[in-house]
Amino acid sequence: MGAGLMPSGLSVTQDAYEQMIAHCQRDYPREACGLLAGRGNAASKPYSMRNVEESPISYQMDPKEQLTVMKRMRQADEQMLAIYHSHTASAAYPSPVDVRFAVYPDVSYVVVSLVDRQRPEVRSFRIVEGRISEEDLRVSGERL
């Protein structure tokens, strides 16, 4: 693991958090993916994306859909704060493939593990130049 918890971390509203979890549960047994948008370090709007791979072990967003969502964010004066996806059979930790495709050093990467579907494990990371650092994840101000 990286240098430990980052002081700033990511804050997600309760509603956005629940929508993200619901999306991951809905797409099970395939990996789900999406974006979290907001301002500062507070994510308040989830954008569910389609996993074009329709795979239980990997994900890829449709580039056209991603561009459309990025335009919507700009129009709403929001920033992309995080990319989220689910792991259906492994822990909430970035896989080597996740690290290889992490191209946004300024956003958080949220992994939702559905190994125990009744109690999803959710963790947030920064991935910069192949290095993984777990960061603080808060839902409505409460640290997870």
Backbone shape: globular
Fold-level CATH name: Cytidine Deaminase, domain 2
Rg on CA atoms, Å: 14 Å
Main pleated-sheet profile: 9 strands, mixed
Mean pLDDT: 92
Within the largest sheet, what's the order of strands? 7-6-5-4-2-3-1-8-9
Count of DSSP helices? 3
What is the annotated CATH architecture? 3-Layer(aba) Sandwich
Q: What letter string, H or E per element, gives the SSE order?
A: EHEEHEHEEEEE
Instruction: Report the portion of residues in β strands.
Output: 35-45%
Report the end-to-end length measured between terminal Cα atoms. 18 Å
- Indicate the CATH class: Alpha Beta
Labels describing this entry:
Cytidine Deaminase, domain 2, disordered N terminus
Topology:
Layout: E1 10-12, H1 14-27, E2 33-39, E3 42-49, H2 63-75, E4 79-87, H3 96-100, E5 108-113, E6 121-128, E7 131-135, E8 137-139, E9 142-143
Parallel strand pairs: 1-3, 1-8, 4-5
Antiparallel strand pairs: 2-3, 2-4, 5-6, 6-7, 8-9
Structure description:
The protein has 144 residues and is α/β, with parallel strands linked by helices. It has one domain (10-143): Cytidine Deaminase, domain 2. It has 3 helices and 9 strands; from the N terminus they run βαββαβαβββββ. The protein has helices at residues 14-27, 63-75, 96-100, and strands spanning 10-12, 33-39, 42-49, 79-87, 108-113, 121-128, 131-135, 137-139, 142-143. The chain has a 9-stranded mixed sheet. Strand 8 and strand 9 (142-143) form a beta hairpin. The chain starts with 9 loop residues before the first strand and ends with a strand. Mean pLDDT is 92; it is low at 1-7.
